[in-house]
Protein 1
Amino acid sequence: MTVANQALPALPGVWDPSRAPHTDETGAHNVYAYQHVLRVATDGEAFSADYGIRPEDYPHVHPMLIGLWTAGDPRHRDLRDAVDEPFHRGRTAELRPQLRGLADDLIDQVLARGDGRVELIAEIAKPFHLRATCGLLGLDPSHAPMFDDWIRTAAEAMAVNEIKPDPEQTKFWFRLIAERRAHPQTGLVDDLIAVQQRGDYLVAGQPMSEWDLVGYFAMLLAAGYEVISGLANTVLFAEEFGVLDALYADNRLLAGALEESLRRYPPFVTTQRTATADVDFDGYTVKPGDRVVGWITAANRDPNWFPDPDAYDIRRDPNPPHLAFGWGPRYCLGAPMARLEMLVGLEVILERLPGLRRDRTQPLTRTYGIVHPLDKLPCTIETPIHR
Ligand code: HEM
């Protein structure tokens, strides 16, 4: 069974909050203003995120689509309640020292080469994120290249509007659940297996199933991939907009720089729902059953919320919430983890690689996707700090 990613045509004007709502060639309604996108994300009465995937479909879809991401209520609420507690119970905060160690190791490897160069995505951001995710979930980091392959394949399929099943991955998760039930280790995988075994949570009135676990794991593995873009974009923008030296001088400015990168160039570009009621977007109406695509890219540049929205202002004040992690009942579950990961990665980069600059002799290459995230960010290093 191939599941369409609810239409993501490569529309022009995805950055323009003043663009009027309109229907595209797939029949989906597209909205751009902050208020409109916020409504799509938060109004659970008028919109549903249910992809209509039912238990009989599970063996025939990509395992990522079995998770809470594609579920409507009550299944979504129950799955979210069950993962919320183990996800936030110290798992995130206790990863800080591990994250620093991971970033340090990667930088050591780069510096050992001694050629004054680093390709920030392949050599730091990507392996850092994949290993951090393995640490969070409790997965064997030697599988990172295979995980990367799975996630990229799914992301590329989403960009062209179809997500095919991945039976090899589904089998991997079933095998892992059996192994870890017999020999528990430490990580979110084990926490969730324990939650299921204790029977603490019902999912839509039923005990949590093996398929529910498979859905969690596949989704949690893939969901944070945007961390790679968030981290690399922050380095790129900080240099392009002339604030990299300010960040070197005072790393307390990093959090503002990171949020501004996420606002200005959100790695996750839309929030999508199906209307379940008549909805009026300032005179533009949608009907129950209609697909609605809210463009986070545009909402985050709405001048009614963010004065001078195209500027990269790391001290933005006032700074209302941007929508890069969504908002409301489906707000990104991993936002604290994502922020921690990106901040620690950036902190260590600033500490260890003073004088980092984009290598302008090399092209910036971009990859699949609506807003074409960076594929490579070649940089030069002036005065590395060896430890
Ligand atoms: C920079 C990195 C990230 C960005 C930009 C991002 C963005 C988003 C956005 C916009 C949504 C809401 C989608 C919607 O409204 O339909 C979302 C949901 C979600 N994110 Fe993230 N995310 C990031 C990292 C992570 C990480 C690291 C994890 C987990 C380890 C994660 C797990 C999830 C999950 C499970 C959901 C679904 C929540 C639900 O439906 O209740 N994300 N993310």
Protein 2
Amino acid sequence: MRRALAWVDGNVVDAAAARVSVLDRGFTLADGCFETMRLYAGLPYALDRHLARLATSARLLDIPLDRAPARPAAVVRALAEAWGPEEDGMLRVTLTRGVAGGVAGPRAEAAAPTLVATVIPVPYPARFYEEGLRAVLLDRPRRAPPEVLDPRAKTLAYLPHVLARREAERRGADEALLLSTDGRLAEATTANVFLVKNGALATPDLATGILDGLTRADVLRLARAEGLAVEERAIDPREAAAADEILLTASVGEVLPVTRRIADLYRLHVKQSLSQGARGVWETIN
Ligand SMILES: Cc1ncc(COP(=O)(O)O)c(C=O)c1O
């Protein structure tokens, strides 16, 4: 298995040797945001949308991205090129408010943001795609409700998701389905969720307070273009138990476990969108 790489302080290094400060607010307070994208043969899919969502997260958290030590696009490129085309990878960019004590105050205001990135082999086992993964519906809400934390920000605050995933695993499952605070089906711990019933797709609407997943948006578009019935709406969790099938979507995991039709559609779409190769990807990003 390939060794993980990291971009830190302008250099690509072995991830095991990369360091950030123990005083970094990402570490002490989860005061930051991130993006994870998939590298296909060395090229990031949907880089422009990932960068746009990172910028949105930074704006919503009031982290001055323009004071980060480098441009995220340049960091992604340096790391993707160092990783190379032999194996797909999971590339993560993490942005924090930087090194400063105190919950808020002038020191936090003055801090320069920390920007680091890592790339590791895709962590999803083949079994997920061949057999589908086992998901359990947990009677607990996803992370903070929208009134507490705007779900458009992909923040570092994943502890509720970590605990939910642990609980799912203790119960012999691979993934947990979480509820919104008002008891609607929301999303999985690191993926959006779709239900399939009688050939029609349904997914929680954004008003449920979920992450506006990029793969979710692609699947909605592809399914509609294929003439499939698709609904975005509030979903009662009991519908999950009654569904013919449940699909999870995420940039790195793609579509799992799946009607092969949707999974194949997504794969084909990604392939076409990267078909112009490196020039097509890097030249669209300024
Ligand atoms: C909570 C949550 N929902 C949904 C997703 C899927 O989002 P995307 O398709 O943009 O990767 C993720 C991905 O990390 C996630 O963490």
